[in-house]
Amino acid sequence: MRIVTASAPGKVILFGEHAVVYGRPAIAVPVDRVQATAEVRRYAKGGIRILAPDLGEDSLLAELPPDHPLGIVVRGALVELGQTAEAGLRITVRSTIPIASGLGSGAAVSTAIVRALAGYFERPLALADVSRLAFEAEKVYHGSPSGVDNTVIAYERPVYFVRDRTLETFCATRPFTLLIGDTGVASPTKETVGDVRRAWQAEPDRFELLFDLCAEITRRARAAIEAGEPALLGPLMDRNQDLLAEMGVSSPELEGLIEAARRSGALGAKLSGGGRGGNMIAYVEAEEADVVSAALLQAGARDVILTRISAETRN
Ligand code: PMV
Do 213 and 157 share a structural domain? Predict the structure, then answer.
């Protein structure tokens, strides 16, 4: 029997979350240490059965409501591939990416599904098409997503992302090491994005200024990464964290981990993604990683992932 499996990595946003929803740039990188996978095989009973054991999902596509993200991505991919929903297919999704924690689990699951279906029907899709199909499901997960998650995950390269602009991927000229610390607090991005929107509507001038300051930090960070001066990233992360706290998306759990990282030798630290929970990131010298990682766990991190942004195109 023909079985096709495809995967997609997680991601972290290094700079510019939330401001990116308002047209400012963000920098995001793929994280290969966590992955979503999708397996497609024939389903003799006909129809399309979607299984996501980690989510307790086992449904026929025809039974899923129109706004179900897995249904949206499967339907979108089938249309793109010129297939009908009548095909007998079983799609099984698994993921090691924690949900609602800023690591892009939704976009990774969508991307893995699109890739596996494209592989099954032997119709390779352009990266831009994979990203676009995953974006449709992001709208359900996120409300008004910027598109940064599906983009960095579909392209699997560091991206300098500005909403509705041609994508810019870029490379680090010197490698650098990040620790990703999980608060263990689930925080749906849709809620924090909605709260920031309401706060922006109430105080547009203050929030526009905060977004502009984030944009300046993101531009400087890109220049530092491209110039091979990652040491500059630490203070830039700290300043981005201050601005995110002013936006109201930090939390005591995030701040506890950020402080623990800084005190134990991280060169800078900030929340990553939607905030209020989920993950924080710390920029560390490679030789300090063990010490900072232990401090994060001691301070209550549920998990710590080390990821290295390499000087090539992928980390
Ligand atoms: O998926 P998360 O939690 O990494 O957050 C996405 C980043 C936001 O800027 C908060 C929202 C967006 O759509 O860009």
Answer: no
Return the minimum-mean-pLDDT range out of 7-16, 223-232, 282-291.
Answer: 223-232
- Among residues 168, 189, 211, the one where a domain terminates is 168
Compute, in angstroms, the gap from residue 244 CA to the centroid of ligand 1.
Answer: 12
Please write the tens of the pLDDT for every residue from 195-204: 999 999 999 9
Residues 175 and 160 in one domain: no
Establish if 315 belongs to a structural domain.
no
Among 14, 20, 99, residue to substitute to test ligand 1 (most atoms within 8 Å of Cβ): 20
Atom of ligand 1 nearest to the CA of 192: 10
Tell me: the pLDDT tens digits for 279-299? Answer: 999 999 999 999 999 999 999
Neighbouring residues of 92: CB distance < 8 A, sequence distance ≥ 6: 38, 39, 51, 52, 53
The confidence score (pLDDT) of residue 209 equals: 98
The reply to whether 108 and 61 lie within a common domain is yes
Q: Please, which residues have CB within 8 angstroms of residue 242's CB and are 6 or more apart in sequence?
A: none
Q: For residue 8, count other CB atoms closer than 10 A to its CB.
A: 29
